[in-house]
What we know:
About 50% of the residues lie in helices and about 15% in strands. By secondary structure, the protein is of the alpha/beta class. The protein has a 6-stranded parallel beta sheet with strand order 2-1-3-4-5-6, sandwiched between helices. The radius of gyration is 16 Å and the shape is globular.
Amino acid sequence: MSKIPLVLLPGLLCDQALWQKQIDALSDIAECQVADLTQHDTLAGMADHVLANAPAKFALAGLSMGGYLSFEILRRARERVLRVALIDTSARADTPAQNRNRKMFVAHAKRGKFKGVTPQLIHNWVSPKSSARDPGIIDAVQAMTLRVGPDAFCRQQAAIMERPDSRPQLPLIQCHALVLCGREDQATPLELSREMAADIPAAQLVVLEDCGHLATMEKPDETSAAMRRWLLAE
């Protein structure tokens, strides 16, 4: 059996490390490609970059910001996407409060306080149960955010803030869809995943217990198993 082309979209301040456990676990059935989402300050620019470097047809998985970008890619090239996984994300646009918080974080980063910003974000991303279960996860996430760095962080936040409400396009997604969320996700709470799964015709909702916003790192085995079922679904 030929391997399924799988494009993986990282979240804010994330890189390949976000997906490494899935890349390893799915290597027998998927040819994985992690997109670089650090160079553009619009979802349009990110989407053009991903589509220019992706295979003609591919499965698509995005976590958080990667999910927002998945909707932009579907708007532009739905016919190229074989199936989609939306992990710890939302179809909604930012609320005014979220927008204000993003601008505050960007302002801190531009004043040279980026290292002070990232611990606040990580606290909101990783479930206390995950850090108790795996004491190294906080260091791993912190290292990932520092590799991405403040300049890319500001560009990514700019892209996220201008995203549209993607809820109207949910019923148009006709391919196999996995909607996965940690029950303790504070950044994109579970009800947002329930909303997406309810409106996507061929969606399966998977909820991971004792897991926050970074399911691929907090519950890697369960996430990989759900993605395997999704990739092989007929």
